[in-house]
Amino acid sequence: MNFDAEILGLEKQLLDSGKRHSEDFLREILSEEFVEIGSSGKTYNREDTIKELLNSKDFEYEISDFKTIELGNDIVLASYKIKINGKLSFRNSLWKKSGDKWKIVYHRGKNI
Questions:
Q1: DSSP 17-58
Q2: Based on the number of CB atoms within 10 Å of its own CB, is 60 exposed (0-12), middle (13-18) or buried (19 or more)?
Q3: At 91, phi and psi to the nearest 5?
Q4: Which residue of 1, 10, 49, 89 lies most exposed, with the fewest beta carbons within 10 A?
Q5: CA 81/CA 25 separation, integer angstroms
Q6: For 75-99, what is each residue's pLDDT tens digit?
Q7: 55-81, pLDDT tens digit by residue?
Q8: How far apart are the C-alpha atoms of 3 and 74, rounded to whole Å?
């Protein structure tokens, strides 16, 4: 099964300032066990990430090379490149379906 369109839509919601600045949305989409490893190598838990996203500035972005791989029942790995403010990075996100909703469990960014 191909999850590219559905998961890409969720990734874009996390990049959208209207959604990214909504604590209710973030608590709904970030799983309880969420972990992010930033491009600096710093690790963030769910609460750290919510705080960072709520206080983040708006930005323009361009996503390329987006693809998903189904790792198991209701578990999908997304990988893509993203350019933000002229800086290119490679990102991976692990998504898990909980009931009828996808939640992000893990995210990793690496500058390239």
A1: HHHHT-HHHHHHHEEEEEEEE-TTS-EEEHHHHHHHHHTPPP
A2: exposed
A3: -130, 145
A4: 1
A5: 24
A6: 999 999 999 989 999 999 999 999 9
A7: 999 999 999 999 999 999 999 999 999
A8: 10
- Quick one: tokens of 105? 């469990």
Side chain identity at residue 64, one-letter code: S
Give the residue carrying structure tokens 């800086």: 87
Domains belonging to the chain, first-starting first, are 4-111 (3.10.450.50)
pTM of the model: 0.92
For 79, half-sphere exposure in the C-beta direction (CA atoms, 13 angstrom radius) is: 6
